[in-house]
Write a structure and sequence with these properties.
Alpha-Beta Plaits; seven-stranded mixed beta sheet; 26 strands; six-stranded antiparallel beta sheet; Calcium-transporting ATPase, cytoplasmic transduction domain A; elongated; single chain; alpha+beta
């Protein structure tokens, strides 16, 4: 094997699924090229390249021959069609020149849509083709009115040839790239054939309508990109950076981790960070979709792109510009487009068979009736040419990716992230959902409600428990440490502290070992007498979690904690039931506490589960249906991986964005139901698109063979189906996952 490199380019001018297919086909057969990914909405070409066999310039030339613009990631690609603003997905190199400290800085936000505005349709190559073919058609009609029929026929023929020339050039280049069955090739054959059978006027009209259709597809594709583009524009371009006690406006790209920025009321937060001074309400709806502002005070995190609503905040930067929450969401949406749904892969395979079949059928229509039944050649050749135009699968190919891209954008706007079409399809098929309890169905902030000493005072119980749990990040441990700090109880000095998975924690105090563990673990250790077991049962029946503090030979005391369910958890269970979804809570907590919480929420439960027990439960459920697991993305990693779909709860954390198949940024349990509604609506939209595409094709195939429709209606059927499918997919951009029904 040669030395391979991962390469990425921006490709402009792709307006439909078949465009992405052409780019993929043009480079996939080149020597040394593998792992080709082409994404329509984010205009990206990524592949693995062995440059000893094929150079990057050769790859770029192959794409350019098809009429698309291409440039390496981070550079501006030629605008050949309706494209994203330069640098939307590729971060530009920041200007590192120092700002003049004494120069007043313009603090107004940059005007959106100015420097990076899309070109007007008539400034694009496809727009100019529409204008040119339209003028030629009008001139030909003028000749028809004032000149002899032969002159008019010649004028229409000239208009056809001039209009079809750029299309034919693209068709030939695609054929050289081993893609003979393209809409450009079908158009070229149809228009040229129409000239030979004397239908020059109709041929000229077809060329013009084809050009109009390409422009409409470009407009629709650009509209579909707006939602994704809006994400990238949430982060401000500049920030107020503290330098030597003074505030200086700098590009956001210059910010470094650890620096301090000032965010004034009304400003957007320029970077992911942590509040170090000030208290203010922060509107996180641009990032998470949560409409109610959250109060942020020192020590709390803030996200780039959120809006400071009340008072000035000093924020310490914790993430570089290319790694902030917005950038990661954009990357996730970008990468999600590459995770193609099974339906999309099937349609791609189907279209590769469908187009040659249509061409073969058109050939039979052209020659069989004249040869077998002495039918007129011109009539049947004309019908065969119309069949060729109907045969293009553009609408069918784009039916899935257009819907998926719209759904990803709509979900991201409401704090719901799904990693691609395959995940959306899996979510839509979900029949069972397993929830972790702590931090998922509950707030994850348990508080101590009871301390029951057995061999000492409450303070001694708390001091020993706090010492053992001092290094733990578990929510129960944090609750014990918080209570000790609040009461001024100093933790006992310990050594060799460690977690005992599924049981608790242990540490060495002097020469002895002490534990904080579950009642079951303590009972197995032989330190629980009848009175202690009765008290633990009593506390658990009240819905509390009990931990036991003990030495190897004696019980020290019991600590009871309560973690309140999330306010929307019960409502989420109701919504899931209305969707026909069975929900179950999987927890390592004791049976009685789990039963109390499950009864309050109206769901089934399985308790006292070790991590491996959760995995076994998920595998058992997957044998009966399609299973989604919802957890915190860290402790539940094995169970998340075992389910058909793993969903992480978390407000923009690295884990929530990167470990699971989907993430709920708003930490709302009802968003799980919203995700299922969005996925089901997306699959319904895809089915509608496939029905539109195949339905129109089927109708016009029949009417064309029967002679009821001609060339110009055939091209309208193809273009109309593509535009209808795209517009139908765009309806998903307005979908609100929070609304039932």
């Amino acid at each position: 094997m040669g030395n391979t490199t991962s390469c990425e380019w921006t490709v402009t001018g792709m307006d439909c699924g078949s465009c992405a297919g052409k780019v993929r086909g043009a480079v996939a057969h080149l020597p040394g090229v593998s792992a080709v990914e082409v994404t329509l909405m984010t205009e990206r070409l990524r592949l693995t390249l062995d440059e000893t066999q094929t150079s990057r310039a050769h790859v770029e030339a192959a794409v350019q021959k098809l009429g698309f613009g291409i440039a390496p990631k981070g550079q501006a690609a030629p605008r050949t069609g309706f494209v994203l603003p330069e640098g939307t997905f590729a971060p530009k190199t920041p200007d590192l020149s120092p700002a003049e400290p004494d120069t007043p800085q313009d603090m107004s936000p940059p005007a959106s849509g100015t420097a990076s505005a899309d070109p007007a349709w008539h400034h694009t190559g496809k727009g100019r083709l529409v204008i040119g073919t339209g003028l030629l058609l009008v001139l030909a009609w003028a000749v028809k009115l004032f000149a002899a029929p032969d002159f008019a026929q010649a004028a229409f023929g000239l208009a056809t040839l001039i209009g079809i020339a750029p299309v034919a050039r693209r068709a030939v280049n695609a054929a050289r790239a081993r893609m003979p069955f393209t809409i450009e090739m079908l158009m070229t054959i149809a228009a040229t054939g129409a000239l030979f059978i004397g239908a020059a006027e109709e041929a000229a009209l077809v060329v013009f309508l084809f050009a109009v259709g390409e422009v409409l597809e470009g407009v629709a594709a650009n509209k579909a990109r707006d939602g994704i583009r809006a994400l990238a524009q949430l982060v401000p371009k500049t920030a107020l950076l503290e330098i030597a006690g003074r505030w200086q406006e700098v590009p956001v790209g210059r910010l470094l981790i650890g620096q301090t920025v000032l965010v004034r009321p009304g400003d957007r937060v320029p970077a992911d960070g942590e509040v170090i001074e000030g208290v203010s309400g922060v509107d996180e709806s641009p990032v998470t979709g949560e409409s109610v502002p959250k109060v942020k005070e020192p020590g709390q995190p803030v996200f780039a792109g959120s809006i400071n609503t009340e008072a000035a905040l000093r924020i310490r930067v914790t993430k570089a510009a290319e790694d902030n929450t917005i950038a990661r969401i954009v990357r996730l949406v970008e990468e999600a487009e590459s995770a193609r749904a099974p339906t999309e892969r099937f349609i791609d395979r189907f279209s590769r068979i469908y187009m040659p079949a249509v061409v073969g059928t058109a050939l039979l229509v052209a020659i069989v009736p004249p040869l077998a039944f002495a039918a007129p050649w011109d009539v049947w050749v004309y019908r065969a040419l119309a069949l060729l135009l109907i045969g293009c699968p553009c609408a069918l190919v784009i039916s899935v990716p257009a819907s998926i891209a719209s759904a990803l954008s709509a979900g991201a706007r409401h704090g719901i992230l799904m990693k691609g079409g395959a995940v959306i399809e899996a979510v839509a098929r979900t029949t069972h959902i397993a929830f972790d309890k702590t931090g998922t169905l509950t707030l994850g902030l348990p508080q101590i409600t009871d301390i029951v000493p057995v061999g000492g005072t409450p303070a001694e119980v708390l001091a020993l428990a706090a010492g053992i749990e001092a290094g733990s990040s578990h929510p129960l441990a944090q609750a014990i440490l918080s209570r000790a700090a609040a009461e001024g109880v100093a933790p006992v000095a310990v050594t060799a502290a460690r977690a005992v998975p599924g049981k608790g924690a242990e540490a060495r105090v002097g020469d002895a070992v002490a534990w904080v563990g579950s009642p079951r673990f303590a009972a197995a250790s032989g330190v629980m007498d009848a009175a202690a077991r009765h008290k633990a049962t009593e506390l658990e029946e009240a819905g509390k979690t009990v931990v036991v503090v003990f030495w190897a030979d004696r019980l020290v005391g019991l600590v009871a904690l309560r973690d309140a369910p999330r306010p929307d958890a019960a409502e989420a269970m109701r919504q899931l039931k209305s969707l026909g979804i069975d929900a179950v809570m999987l927890t390592g907590d004791n049976q009685r506490t789990a039963a109390a919480v499950a009864q309050e929420l109206g769901m089934d439960h399985r308790a006292e589960l070790m991590p491996e027990d959760k995995v076994a439960a998920i595998r058992e459920m997957t044998a009966r249906g399609r299973v989604m697991m919802v957890g915190d993305g860290i402790n539940d990693a094995p169970a998340l991986a075992s389910a058909h779909v793993g969903v992480a709860m978390g407000s923009g954390t690295d884990v929530a964005l990167e470990t699971a198949d989907a993430a709920m940024l708003r930490n709302r349990v009802t968003d799980v139901a919203g995700t299922i509604r969005l996925a089901r609506s997306t699959m319904a939209n895809i089915r509608q698109n496939v029905a539109i595409a195949l339905g129109l094709k089927g109708v016009f195939l029949v009417t064309t063979v029967l002679g009821m429709t001609g060339l110009w209606l055939a091209i309208l059927a193809d273009t109309g189906a593509t535009v209808l499918v795209t517009l139908n997919a765009l309806r998903l951009l307005a979908f609100d996952p929070d609304k039932e029904g």
